Amino acid sequence: MRCYLEDESQGDSQPIKFPEGVNIISLDQQSWLLYFLMEFSMKSIVKINAVKEQTNLSVASIYRLAKQGDFPKPIKLGVKASGWLQCELDDWIQSRLNARDLEAKGGN
Questions:
Q1: What is the sign of the dihedral through the CA atoms of 37, 55, 45 and 20?
Q2: Predicted local confidence at residue 58, as pLDDT
Q3: Residue 62 and residue 11 share a domain
Q4: Which residue, of 12, 54, 91, 97, has the greatest Cβ tally within 10 A?
């Protein structure tokens, strides 16, 4: 994986290689990576096949849950194309995890 950071002292982009299996140790690099991933995720639109893969739901279930208000609604991209915001899918998946954890702790 190759990422680029702005080197404030030099004013140019410096490549930073993250070897496979090696943790990032610099707090600045961690902050940048987190920001990059959040920005990418928030602006990323995914199509139905990616939604199916991430959720393990059928196409019919995805659209039914969205219509019921229990799943993120699709964004119309064209006459025959729709997509979902990745950040909304991430939030939905996290809500499912939270519900599972609450139930495991004896919550409602």
A1: positive
A2: 98
A3: no
A4: 54
Asked if 2 contacts 17 with a C-beta cutoff of 8 angstroms, the reply is yes
- Short-list 21, 82, 104, CA closest to 72: 82
Do 54 and 100 belong to one domain? yes
Angle of helix 48-55 relative to helix 86-104, nearest 10 degrees, comes to: 20
Q: What pLDDT is recorded for position 105?
A: 87
Residue 55 has pLDDT above 60, yes or no: yes
Phi, psi of 12 (to 5 degrees): -135, 170
48 shares a domain with 33: no
What would the pLDDT profile of 60-83 be if each residue is shown by its tens digit? Answer: 999 999 999 999 999 999 999 999
Distance CA 83, CA 91 (A): 16
Distance CA 81, CA 75 (A): 9
Q: What is the dihedral of CA 29, 23, 37, 46, to 10 degrees?
A: 160
Whether this model's pTM surpasses 0.90: no
